[in-house]
Structures are given as structure tokens and as C-alpha cells.
Amino acid sequence: MADYKIPKIKVPRFCEAQGFYTTPARSKMMAKIKGKNTKAELQLRKALWAAGVRFRVNVKTLPGKPDVASKKLKFAIFVDGGFWHGYQWDVRKSKLKENKDFWIPKIERNMQRDEEVNLELQHKGYAVFRFWDHEVKANLGECLKQIFEYVEHKARSA
Question: Which tens digit of pLDDT belongs to each residue from 23-77?
Fold first, then answer.
């Protein structure tokens, strides 16, 4: 692992005994949240494949299991959900209403882990792309442009 000097954030266990609780309705809603093959990921992958960029999905041998990766072209792409990865975290953190003692360290640890993964992949020579899911849905062309610029540069230098 690459040198990462910041101590890991400790996330408390989510259990009622520690004062964290959830309603059955909230639990059912949270269970529907997908971690793989989200609409934004599928949209990005479909566009990349159509453009002739070949890749693998959820590569377990790479740090962070990138949503899309190419060992040949040395890139890793993550499509991050806004809530889980802390989009505009300073603003959103203050708006949390329930279970703050759990959610704040949980999301901050996710953000910290994202940084650790980025550093480790870069240390291995990978270009890392991180897009917010809403960014992919709203402006797929701009996300693709960044990836294509990298792929074209990599092809020219090979």
C-alpha cells in the first residue's frame, strides 16, 4: 500500500444497543440501494464500450475494486454516489437529522478510503477517474471526454 499517514477514522457499529436505530420502512428503503451496476455506471460502461474502449468491471485484484478498469490502458474509473462518498459534505453534514454519530464517521471514512485507494492506484501507475453518479447522468459527454483524452494520449505514447 502507498504511504498514507493519516490515521483511519473509526466508524462505530450500527446497532440499537449503541443508540443507533432505524425504522422498518427506512431499512427496507436502504436495502434497495445498489452498490454495483447502478444506472450511472451502466450508462458510462455502455458509452465506453460503444466507443471501442475495452475494460473489465469491478476488478477485485485492484485496490478499491474499480467500477470500470483496464489493466492494459492502466485506468480505473469509479462512479460514486453523492451520499455515500460525501458530495458537498461540509454542507450536507450539518443537515443530517438522525444517527449523526454513526453517519458522519461512516461517510468521512468512505471519503478517506477513496483517497487511500486513489493513492494506491496512482502508485501502481493507474490513472484514476472519479465521477459523481449525478455528474454521469447529467453530463455523460464531459465524463467521456476526460476518459477519451487519457486513452488517446496513452495510445499515442505506446
Answer: 677 667 666 666 788 999 999 999 999 999 999 999 999 999 999 999 999 999 9
Rounded CA gap, 147 and 75, in Å?
9
DSSP 9-74: PPPPP--GGGT----HHHHHHHHT--SSS-HHHHHHHHHHHHTT---EES-TTSTT--SEEETTTT
- Compute the 3-state secondary structure of the chain and give helix, strand, coil in percent, each to the nearest 5: 50, 10, 40
Would strands 127-132 and 75-80 be described as parallel, antiparallel, or unpaired?
A: parallel
pLDDT tens for 136-145 read 999 999 999 9
| Closest among 74, 66, 69, 77 to 157, alpha carbons compared | 74
Cell of 88: 458537498
- The CATH number that domain 36-157 falls under is 3.40.960.10
C-alpha dist (Å) from residue 74 to 49, 86, 106, 153:
16, 26, 30, 12
> In sequence order, which residues have a C-beta less than 8 Å from that of residue 110 and are 6 or more positions away?
84, 85, 86
